[in-house]
Amino acid sequence: MEPWQGALIFVLGILSGFLNVMAGGGSLLTVPVMVFMGIPYAFRVGAMVSVDVLYRVVGARGKRVFDFVTSVAALTLVTVIIWWGWDYSTRGRVQTVSGLESISMFWAYLALPVGGLFCVPAILANFFDPQRNELENAQ
């Protein structure tokens, strides 16, 4: 984790705690940020347990094909998240955050497409420059 990410999570924790006390909506901030700060990194390093298990079983020739198939599957999933997340965001722009009626829910729902957009380069980076550190360190 980078230092700026740790600082962001710390500030977000304080802000969400304050928001929980005042209006009861702190998880509205913490869940999207925590999820989408972790998922792009997991895609980048290829840290998917079920994929790792199958990767060990596939022969030497099939590993690149397996990488391609998992990358296409992940990109398909992220594309769906981006598409429907944007649609959900635009539909939710008329809603407001509970206790903070001046803030539109558009900004909270926007975490889905923005997080998905951060995942795309991570998936592509894992395909073109795979890092299999967890397989080498596993026992």
Give a written overview of the molecule.
- 76% of the residues lie in helices and 5% in strands.
- With 139 residues, it is mostly helical.
- The chain has one domain (3-137).
- Strands 1-2 form a two-stranded antiparallel sheet.
- A hairpin with a 2-residue loop joins strand 1 (96-97) and strand 2.
- Helix 2 packs parallel to helix 6 and helix 4 (62-91) packs antiparallel against helix 6.
- The mean pLDDT is 77.
The radius of gyration computed from the alpha-carbon positions, rounded to a whole number of angstroms, is 18 Å
Gross geometry = elongated
What amount of the residues lies in strands? 5-15%
- The largest beta-sheet arranges its strands as 1-2
Total discrete domains: 1
Give the terminus-to-terminus CA distance.
24 Å
The pLDDT mean sits at 77
Largest sheet: 2 strands, antiparallel
How many helical elements? 7
Helix content: over 70%
Number of strands: 2
- Structural class by helix and strand composition: mainly alpha
Which ranges are low-confidence, i.e. pLDDT below 50, for 5 or more consecutive residues?
none
What is the H-and-E element order?
A: HHHHEEHHH
Q: Topology, pairings included?
A:
Layout: H1 3-22, H2 27-45, H3 49-57, H4 62-91, E1 96-97, E2 100-104, H5 106-109, H6 111-128, H7 133-137
Antiparallel strand pairs: 1-2
Helix pairs in contact: 1-2, 2-6, 4-6
